[in-house]
Amino acid sequence: MQFSTTSSPFIPASNTVNRVMLQVLLALLPALAVMYWLFGMSILVQLILACTTALLAEAGILYLRKRPIKIHLRDLSATVTAVLLALAIPSIAPWWIIVCGSLFAIIIAKQLYGGLGYNPFNPAMAAYVFLLISFPLQMTAWQTPFNPLPYTEVFKIIFTAQQAFDGLSSATILDYNKTQLSLDNTLTNTGINFSTNTLLWVSIAYLLGGLWLLYRKVISWHIPVAVLCGLCLPASIMYVVDTSHFSSPLVHLFSGASLCGAFFIATDPVSAATSNKGRLVYGLLIGVLIYIIRTWAAYPDAIAFAVLLANLSAPSIDHYLRPKAAHKPL
Question: 311-314, long-range: CB within 8 Å, 24+ apart, which pairs?
Answer without folding.
Answer: 311/120, 311/121, 311/122, 311/271, 311/272, 312/120, 313/282, 313/285, 314/120, 314/271, 314/272, 314/273, 314/278, 314/282
